[in-house]
Design a protein that fits this description.
The structure is a single chain. Helices cover 0% and strands 46% of the residues. By secondary structure, the protein is mainly beta. The chain has a single domain, classed as Neuraminidase. The strands form seven sheets. Strands 4, 5, 6, 7 and 8 form a five-stranded antiparallel beta sheet that branches. A hairpin with a 5-residue loop joins β13 and β14. The chain is globular.
């Protein structure tokens, strides 16, 4: 049995990836078999989307991913690296940049884009681990005046937040040219909550209709509780639709959602209950008006990590996430019954340097393979966090 290996070679202050095939019994890195799933580890390939010496690339789940066939766009932060012990390894006194990476070949190669040059998608608010950009005139957050066409063929939308703890003001942007140019920032209402901590998770329901899945501050002002909001007039007005479950004991945040049928919607949610950190599944059978708990999707994710849920071309569901406990790494689970039950974890890699990894986003490309993007580091790469990719084939994973 052979295994795809990634060796990092320093060249002009960057790392390049060199794939090497060696016998897995000599050295095994990044690709493992789940106990009850068939696996061909040569079908799993890891790559680099963004790496830079002295920097911290992080949190794609806070930004979003979009795809048009094999064209993929993903957002992430690029801060400055600093070893801060048990905290995120970000220098709080240096600027935090928000970047985009675009692939035109299904995630095989990537080019960086800098929306800050257009004064767009600018980092702001208490959610930053670094500072705002110096010498930049930040545009005000304003009200949307013209309706958005959500069904435009090159449409993309992103939701951003001011504060991840209890909420605060959130905003949104939209694009009609696949994220090359963005309109915004536009204000998102508070929906009678202590604040909204918005990340990008939405379902387009029609030309003027969209459902957005958000996190709000709880009644005590702390993080956080998931909710659904809707617009029927292209984003000019928004209304609260429902809470996803009762107010949690600790928090229920960062939903990732798919439509199952004409009336059914499934969302997976990062959850903390007492000393448990897990991913839970909730289902609505009336288009988001009411929700019921479905199942534990991933019963243990270490110190906590959000899910990325997608519906595959063959009708199955796939959820990807980081396991933030030893052995640290990136995993997936599959469901062939609309999220009622889930496979054992598919372990793509378990060589992470510590818990400070993950926040994945995934899309399926035209050949059926899945491109999963996340932030990562290990002993081979060095302590800087980088934006990584794993390309994998879900068709080879079948229950015994």
């Amino acid at each position: 049995m052979k295994s795809n290996m990634l060796f990092f070679i320093r060249k002009n202050t960057r790392f390049i990836i060199v794939p090497v095939l060696i016998l897995s019994f000599l050295y095994h890195l990044g690709c493992s078999e789940a106990e009850n799933l068939k696996s061909d580890d040569e079908s799993i390939r890891h790559g680099i989307v963004y790496y830079e010496d002295g920097r911290f690339g992080g949190w794609p789940a806070n930004h979003g991913i979009w795809s048009w066939g094999d064209e993929i766009l993903v957002g992430f932060c690029a801060a400055y690296y600093m070893d801060r012990g048990n905290g995120h390894a970000v220098n709080p006194d240096e600027p935090e940049h928000h970047l985009l990476a675009r692939s035109l070949d299904g995630g095989e190669t990537w080019n960086l884009e800098y929306p800050e040059k257009q004064k767009s998608l600018l980092p702001r608010g208490a959610m930053l681990f670094g500072t705002t950009l110096p010498d930049v005139d930040y545009p005000p957050i304003r009200d949307l005046k013209e309706p958005i066409n959500f069904t435009h063929p090159d449409f993309a939308m992103t939701f951003r937040m001011e504060d991840h703890r209890g909420g605060g003001q959130s905003r949104f942007y939209y694009s009609y040219d696949r994220g090359k140019n963005w309109n915004g920032p536009f204000a998102l209402p508070l929906f009678d909550t202590p604040g909204i901590a918005a990340r990008t998770d939405y379902l387009v329901e029609g030309e003027s209709e969209l459902l957005a899945f958000l996190t709000a501050g709880k009644s005590d002002g702390r993080e956080g509780r998931t909710l659904v909001v809707s617009t029927r007039d292209g984003g000019l007005n928004w209304e609260f639709l429902s809470w996803i479950g009762p107010e949690p004991e600790v928090f229920r945040i960062m939903p990732s959602t798919v439509r199952l049928s004409e009336h059914e919607i499934l969302t997976t949610v990062r959850t903390r209950e007492s000393d448990r950190r897990l991913i839970k599944g909730w289902i609505s059978k009336d288009n988001g008006a009411n929700w019921e708990f479905l199942t534990d999707v991933a019963p243990d994710v270490g110190v906590g990590n959000p899910p990325s849920l997608i519906k595959l071309n063959d009708g199955r569901l796939a959820v990807t996430y980081a396991h933030r406990a030893e052995p640290y790494g990136i995993r997936a689970r599959l469901s062939d019954d609309n999220g009622r039950t889930w496979s054992d974890p598919i372990i793509f890699r378990e060589d992470g340097g510590n818990w400070d990894i993950g926040y994945s986003r995934s899309v399926q490309r035209t050949d059926g393979k899945i491109v999963t993007i996340y932030y990562y580091w290990n002993e081979e790469s060095g302590p800087e966090r980088y934006i990584a990719s794993t390309i994998w084939d879900p068709s080879i994973y079948n229950d015994d």
